[in-house]
Amino acid sequence: MTRVLGWLFRGALALYPPAFRSRFGPAMTQAFDDRLIAHQAEHHRVAAWLFGARGIANTAANGLAERWSARGYRSTGDRSGNRFGTIAQDVAYAWRVIRRRPALSATAVLTLAIGTGASTAIFSLVDAALLRPLPFNKPAELVNVAQTFNGAATQVSLENLLDWKRESRTLAAITPMQAQSVNLTGVAEPDRLRGGFVTSDFFAVTRVAPAIGRPFTAADDVRGARAVGVLDHAVWQARFGGDRGILGRTITLNNTPVTVVGVMPEGFRFPYDTIEVWLPIWQFTGGLARGDRSLVAVGRLGPGVQLSHAQAELSAIAAQLADTFPDQNKGRGVQIQPYQRWLTSGIGFPLGLVFGLVLLLLVVAASNVTSLQLGASLERRTELGVRVALGASRLRLARQLLVEHGVLAMIGGAAGVGIAAALVPRAVSAAPLQIFGLDRVELDWRVLLFAFAVTVVAGLASGIVPALHWTSRDAAGRASARVTADRRITRLRSGLVVAQVALAAVLLVASGLIVQSYGALLHVDAGFDPDRVLTLEYRLPRNKYATPAAQTAFHDDVVRQVSGVPGVEIAAVARALPFSGNAGTVGTLTDPAAPDSAAQATGMNTVSEGYFAAMRIPLIAGRVFAEADQATSDRVVVVSRTFAEQAWPGVSAIGREVRFAGLAFKTRVIGVVGDVRHAGLDDGNGRAIYASNRQNPGIFMTLVARTSGDPIALNAAVRRAIWSIDADQPMWKVRTLGSLVDRSLDLERFLIGVLGLFGISALVLAGVGLSGVVAQSVGQRTREIGVRLALGATPSAAARLIVSSGLSVTAIGLVLGLPLALLVSRLMGSVLRGDGSTSVAIWLVVALVLGVTSFAACVVPARRAAAIDPARTLRN
Amino acid sequence: MTRHAREPESLLPLTAVAFEILLTLSDGDCHGYHIMQEVERRTSGAIVLHPGTLYRALARLLDEALIDERGDRPSKGDDARRRYYSLTPFGREVLGAEASRLERQVREARARRLVRREGR
Fold first, then answer.
1. CA A775, CA A111: separation in Å to the nearest integer?
2. A346 vs chain B: nearest CA distance in angstroms?
3. Which residues pair with residue A175 across a beta bridge?
4. What is the pTM of this model?
5. On the CB side of A666, how many CA atoms lie within 13 Å of its CA?
6. What domain range includes position B30?
7. Rounded to whole angstroms, what are the CA distances from A285 to A294, A607, B60?
8. How far apart are alpha carbons A275 and B66 in whole angstroms?
9. Which of A24, A60, A81 sits opposite B55 (nearest CB)?
10. Which of the residues A185, A326, A862, B79 could staple to A330 if both were Cys, CB 3.0 to 4.6 A apart?
11. B61 with A82: Cβ contact below 8 A
């Protein structure tokens, strides 16, 4: 580290005039080195590094200043250290210049505010969701551990996880993490709490101990031990009044007494789900055998352990487990990755893409301001010329121009932070739910630092071109060089407009692709009718409804009671509602002779008789389930159209046999129904098989009630109907089916809103930029146009000349933007859904929109050109 | 040098950095690194001198003949790259003039009860 800083310091010394360097260089190096060593001894590595970096920056800045003053560029009165005075002078002067041209300055400020505001807002999202470390001690040590099957990640079985823990030397701790709602009863209104099922290692993984009480111990992990729980702080406050006497008290969860042994600290949130009570994993009601892969595993690496080492070790352990338990583990491996990456895997790419695109908008804004200022500086030629004549050095002029741009940029940046502050809450509320960490979004120092950096860069970038131009030899000087200089400015500005058009095209194409993807999804037939359907979920306590018969009886009662609620047309229950996130997969065999290994994965659902009618899933052949299909009668199934067509192409599916891998019994197909997009509108896998809930009972169910009016208005009546069966039965996720379908498009809507905003902003900026350049060229070509008119050209021909010059700039921009847009649309491929994109059509629409905008931008200058009086022009 | 004929007041006000450097040298000759440490210590870190600022200021003070560079070095085993500086009589005058100017300002402020008592 010291060596790198040393090199950088010597590099900074190179900026000084040679005389200064040879006189003071060695002493400065000595002082720098001594300083750094002393600082390192007293401070953290990072602090020392930052200190060194500041020293280098300081040295470089002073080197430049010294070099300028050594060249005689010192302005009068710039005595030792009185430099600040001239900068104050520059700022005061810049302020006067800015105020003298209010319209121009306001445009520049607004443009910069749009660029910095949008990028700051997006950065705050990116920062919260992706960049900021998770709020845990040494978060980099946290890992997600998944099982794999043929390379694809799957969830984890508890038995395997416990074996990893036993064998591993690289993991300091590893816990399963499974969220499942638990029923809280024995209180005034039964409710569900979101339970988090873990082992005692959970507290070692998070390194967070309960605020009061104790964490779980190894004794709590033993199945059959006294059931204990640790409460979330917010639940403790809301439900138990923050009473410290809660410790040792018993609450009833899933109809089982659970002793509260602790309360987590306020604000503790494990980034997976909002958990209200932490429970030992053995209380989890799902399967925990080696073959049941239903858990997420979170581990903590031992101090200093490399991820690759842990991966190698766990792979070896997994290979052993595959040998020992071939039935459950053959072909199964382990995959370990940083926990934060796992958490953000779905959203990292879309957010990164949005961030990249907003930077393009920033470039458009900065180049627009550059172009604007270049144009405006033409009018200042006299002023700048006079200042040169009075002895102002070119450097002084350059500094003056840079300070002007800096002041404008700072005002624009401040306005941009204001825009960001207004945009961020909106963006957060519109953002898809799956972005974890959005509750952490705030305009903190990190975001402000980003805004400041963006402002400085935009200010410098937009100021450097005018500054270079006006300090070049011929610009402010001889009159003969003026025409050339003006032409050069016009060329420069045209080039900037070309870039703006190209980038605007990219942004418009990007938003067009998203709009197209969204539109395609809206027209997708989900296979069911989501309108006017109320749904809710419940889970029966296993110890209260122990037998399949008791469970079936309860579900039957639910259907009966809810059907009787006025306003309900049909009620039914199902294990896995489409779009709810609940889903099951089984291996099916349609060839009676085939071995289990030939099984094909098929979506599995368990439903009551009225389900297909309630969902309006069409019956294509045969019949749906009936009350006659009882637990004791022949096992029957209904299959989807795709399933039937794949298994028995060209012949009827009715009466065929289907077997499930690993299960001995056979089932008979009684009906074929339409395909359903279960996981989302882009879920094109139509293979599904339905079993009757009487023949495949369970404790978890989703109610589906088709209503004649507003479904949510029946919320209370439906809940009362279920409580009339069991007043202690909690239910949750009371919502409409329509809202589930709607929610699945959150990401698209978010992207449409954000990218659409970028695209329109870029379009407007490019239009403003083009209009300015064309107007300037009209001014410069007044004489030429006058001559043309005098020689017989019509005014409309003069106008056409101007319009065509403007449109040709746009055309060049479009052509240059095309490859970039193609690249962006390829990058967006993974974000886009629906049935593929026809980017050619979008490209044409974007070209048309930009063409029309350009035409509109040329109208005013073109009319000015047409109104040129040839006689007067020629006289002048 | 003719510059010695100038009035010390013509160089006022001094920058904070120049004032601190002169103040440090008024205790005795020292080298650049020592000046940095001393200024930082005395101002409790309010003024942190990096090499760039320090040596540019030193160059100005040398130009104005407020300080001098010593040809000899106090001890033998010292790093040969180090340079030692001393306050010139004119520099001492300027420092005194600046201190008086500051004191007048502080007196004005005190008369308006603007001075906060530190510590205790």
1. 19
2. 46
3. A298
4. 0.67
5. 12
6. 2-111
7. 11, 21, 80
8. 70
9. A24
10. A326
11. no
Whether B58 and chain A come into contact, CB under 8 Å, resolves to: yes
In whole angstroms, what is the distance from residue A284 CA to residue B78 CA? Answer: 74
Residue B3 touches chain A, beta carbons under 8 Å: no
What is the DSSP secondary structure assignment for residue A583, as one 8-state letter? Answer: -
Query: Phi, psi (5° rounding) for residue A219?
Result: -65, -30
Give the total number of structural domains in chain B.
Answer: 1
- Can you give the pLDDT at residue A88? 67
Query: What are residue A177's DSSP bridge partners?
Result: A296
Average pLDDT score, chain A: 85
| Lookup result for tokens 């920062």 | A127
In a domain, B119, yes or no: no
With CA atoms as reference, the chain B residue closest to A79 would be: B60
Q: In what order do the strands lie in the sheet with B30-31?
A: B30-31, B84-87, B67-69
What are the boundaries of each domain within chain A? 2-74, 151-330, 348-522+745-875, 541-728
List, in sequence order, the alpha helices (H) in A580-626.
611-615
Decide: helix, strand or coil at residue A612. Answer: helix
Contact call for B61 and A31, based on CB within 8 A: no
User: What is the token pair recorded at A681?
Assistant: 């509108």
pLDDT at A642 over 50: yes
User: Which residues in chain A touch residue B83, judged by CB atoms under 8 angstroms apart?
Assistant: 24, 27
Contact A30 B53 (CB under 8 A): no
Q: Determine whether the interchain pair B32/A61 forms a contact, defined as Cβ–Cβ distance below 8 Å.
A: no
Please tell me the distance from the alpha carbon of residue A198 to that of residue A204, in angstroms, as a whole number. Answer: 11
Query: Using omega within 30 degrees of 0 as the cis cutoff, is the peptide bond preceding B13 cis?
Result: yes
Instruction: Note the pLDDT tens digit of each residue in A41-71.
Output: 888 777 787 788 778 877 877 877 777 665 4
* Residue B54 located in a structural domain: yes
Q: A280 in helix, strand or coil? A: strand
Measured distance CA(B68)–CA(B1) in Å, rounded: 13
User: Which are the contacts of A109, defined by CB distance < 8 A and separation ≥ 6?
Assistant: A408, A411, A412, A415
pLDDT of the residue at A798: 87
CA A327 to chain CA mean position, Å: 40
CA distances (Å), origin A577, targets A101, A193, A543, A702, A703? 63, 21, 25, 7, 9
> Could you give the 3-state DSSP secondary structure of residue A191?
strand
B55 close to A (CB below 8 A): yes
Q: What is the CATH number of the domain that holds B31?
A: 1.10.10.10
Residue-wise over B63-81: b if at least 16 C-beta within 10 A, else e?
A: ebbbbbeeeeeeeeeeeee
pLDDT, residue A68, reads 66
HSE at residue A252, side-chain half, CA atoms within 13 A, is 14
Residues of B in contact with A59 (CB under 8 A): 50-52
The token pair at A172 is 């300091």
- Closest chain A residue to B83, measured at CA: A27
Residue A844 burial (CB < 10 Å; 0-12/13-18/19+)? exposed
Residue B120 counted as domain residue: no
Give the Å distances, CA to CA, from A236 to A196, A232, A247, A694: 15, 6, 11, 39
Contact A59 B51 (CB under 8 A): yes
Single-letter amino acid, residue A243: D
A20 and B14 in contact by Cβ < 8 A?
Answer: no
